[in-house]
């Protein structure tokens, strides 16, 4: 049975991916982590292997010793609060060096980034660095998954997800919205359970595309708002944030933002939310590839915005 290692598999996206691959029954799954976690290992029924992501040679030896055929990275691509940097590039280099490892999925899980985005969000540089590292590999088949924004956030806490509560644009729980721009620009949204399902299914493919696009649903924010109001049977308090406001690093404060301030300071949250709002308003999330993984795996359905909202809030 081929061995698949999920780096960061105890985290949010990573845990969904671990569960989806295990559910296929086709692969032996292990988790790579910065530290051991016997309790989580017992909970998931998957071995957790502590590794030092800064040591490429040692990491490559671990991949060889464990006969790991495929690495799926779900590493967090932001610096940690204690200053640890993402080590995606080192993980790619180690996988390329490992004689046992043949395939690698990089930690992206978002939208097509450009160099312009680097100054707008700190994670972008690390993702683009990883993209270059993938291009420089010699003995690996590699891919990245681009799936838009995670739909999970708009069903929490009522719809199952491993993602943490995060309020962006629509504060469904508090019947409020701060719509970026006109609200008429479409955007791609995909639930992590669907992303994980497509990752697991992609392991069976004979070949990968350099980028796998997964489209869960595509709606405008005005359409999203209407579906949320319909699901809850009430009108939301709505404001529209002009692009000029977003460019200044500001968004209209929502009740869900206030609840987050103890662990996500207001100034940082404002800039973070404004960056994503600007990307939505300018169409960065409305990517339209020539082909998608949905096309290659037509039997796999996806959770739609209306279904999520109705199941969570109606």
TrEMBL record:
Please give one Gene Ontology molecular function term for this protein: oxidoreductase activity
Supply the SUPFAM superfamilies for this chain: NAD(P)-binding Rossmann-fold domains
Q: Name one matching Pfam family.
A: NmrA
Domain NmrA-like residue range list: 4-264
Please name the InterPro entries in this protein's record. NAD(P)-bd_dom_sf, NmrA-like, NmrA/Isoflavone_reductase-like
Kindly indicate whether the keyword NADP belongs to this entry. yes
Top-level taxon: Eukaryota
Tell me which UniProt keywords the record has, alphabetically. NADP, Oxidoreductase
Identify the PANTHER family for this entry: NMRA-LIKE DOMAIN-CONTAINING PROTEIN, NMRA-LIKE FAMILY PROTEIN
Entry similarity comment:
Belongs to the NmrA-type oxidoreductase family. Isoflavone reductase subfamily.
Protein name in UniProt = NmrA-like domain-containing protein
Q: Which organism is it from?
A: Clonostachys byssicola
Organism phylogeny? Eukaryota, Fungi, Dikarya, Ascomycota, Pezizomycotina
